[in-house]
Amino acid sequence: MPGLRESIEIAAPPSVVRAKFLAFDTLPLYHPNGFFRSISSEHCFRWVGSMPGVFTGEHIFRFEHSEVTPGGTTFSQEESFSGALSFLMGDNFAGRTLGWQEKSHKGWIRYNEDLKRWCEGGAEA
Description:
It is built from four helices and four strands. The protein has helices spanning 14-22, 27-30, 93-98, 100-119; strands at 3-10, 44-51, 55-65, 73-82. Strands 1-4-3-2 form a four-stranded antiparallel sheet. It is elongated, with a radius of gyration of 15 Å. InterPro entries: START-like_dom_sf.
């Protein structure tokens, strides 16, 4: 099953990262391409988007105590795909030709970096 995963170390505790992540009204201040509207979960948030039988993606955000950054958070995103067209998100000729996985991955990296900067005080609150 094709999938993606990306994470970043943030020098702020999970409670701060989660609170800033959930402050949807501030999203345009640190990541202008945001599309989230509401989220509620203690350590992770997940949802499944699908076109039944054709394409399904389960996306997960995780807020975990860092084992690398003292007092910090390991913030991760991951997504797994299934369905008849899931191969289009895989590392195969069709997937690489369309570039959807690469575009998604680059977008995740930008979001993770924007959230990190916001949580560490590098963006205006």
